[in-house]
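Request: Not sure, any thoughts?
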Amino acid sequence: MSKKVIQFMDTSFRDGFQSVFGARVLTDDFMPAVKASVEAGITNMEAGGGARFQSLFFYCGESAFDMMDRFRKEVGPDIALQTLARGINVVALSQCPRDIIDLHAKMFKKHGITTIRNFDALNDVRNLEYSGQRIAHHGLNHQIVISMMELPPGCSGAHSPEFYMDRLKQILDAKIPFHSICFKDASGTCNPTKVFETLKAARKMVSDDTILWFHTHDTAGLGISQNMAAIEGGANGIDLAKSPVSGGTCQPDILSMMHAMKGTQYTLDLDYEKILVAMDAFEEAMKDYFFPPEAKMVSSRVTLSPMPGGALTANTMMMRDTGTLHLYADVIKEMSEVVARGGFGTSVTPVSQFYFQQAYLNVTQGRWKKINPSYGNMVLGYFGRTPVPPDAEIVKIASEQLGKPVFTDDPLDILEPGIPKATKILEENKLPVTDENIFIIASCEQKGLDYLLGNAIVNIRKISDAPKEEKKTGGKQAAAAPAAPAAIGPRSYTITVNNRPYNVSVSEAGAIHSTPVAAPVAPAPAAVEGTDVEAPTPGNILKILVELGATVTKDQPLVVMEAMKMESEVKAPCAGKIVAIHIAPGDTVQASDLLFTIG
């Protein structure tokens, strides 16, 4: 009996990079692995979008458009290349107006993309309508998405097979053009039975020739069983990745999936030996990159506090940058509370970042003492409708702290056109006004401008960039060293990672514990009378928007901060005069650190 061939997309070069390296990978380094993948018979690859758009400008000093062009040139005209978009956010972390949504589809088609996978974290179908229409209009395949996850214990009312079928019915009733439908579990937390029931119900609702796809992460160790459940339920295709990025926070491994299909009626129709050659080429390409240990681990706690694989390492890398990694376990635990009371938006970018930022504030400031602006805007309705109404108490707190009412209309209707605004910025900075540059400014804001002005800072974590002291135990010398005695006492030492020192202690049992070395205490700023403006979250200071002595109005933006993959403005709490500026561009601050004083 002939086996059914299951389609798959190789996510190694997009989701793999995001899930393991926080999307910080240079194009020159991985192109040889792309070529090897084509030679192995892989015909469908994820080639950009999601965090792999902004990250190239933010951290790699590269253009994402140039990367996509090189990708297409490397694979030739016949390989399917796919990118990821976030509904009305497209590849930004905030909503984009209609003209920028249209420009997104136009530019990605121009730069070699075949298909755009399009999701909305809130499963608000309104957020998929216009973006889906423009993707189809510009000649791209539109893969429309229903976002999935498991709810924290004790929660109900959404994220069940019935809920997903209601969303699918809304998509069909809205007549949004699509080429295929993807059920996307970014946190890898859906139990396999729910996956099976969802795909089975979807297969009954759509025509026989409708392509159904399933996407998951192996963060909780469920990826292979979820994929098999989806296939048994009627999925035509799944997402897989290659070593060294497969498993853990990324997608299940191609070879592992091939093995799981032995003895079944399904096959990927691949040659093991060719995949091994491609895998070896990819491992060689990535050998100098720092692999965060959490990226390769199975985390059962994620089933209780859904954190997407693609966001997990981005968050932990930024916590390393801000010296707060020791709080990670507490923040993940607190996410259950934040999800439970936030309206059950799917834990996928950007909502996963809202959850994580709010959980961080709950851990460091006390529960609900401080509302993260993005989380607050979500529960107030400014990103669309959450699957269920958020907790009324949290809505009240958010409304009071942000000074905004509940919003129930279409988010697109309150956004000003983006092309004129971006054009003005380009002209003011004497930069070429091209479609690409307009989109870079609109989607990447200040960091996009920095890139275009030649001021981008490359921040790639490579082993060879670490201080020489860190590498004394690595390589051939380490392999030749004699084994350590079986019995050894506890020991402590200090290592430096990415120019930040950590105290490391090893117990007699071999348990390892590390904490960042406390930074030298800076002299306290001179006392200045007035209203203090504090940092709402930990993060990096990107741009100060006011000068000392300037007169400001209430709610005037004062500074642009980057916190956990997101840029946000800190606004003046009152009118007055800037009598003190306590930070400078490039500074790293913690929540509640003093930024300005307004007199």
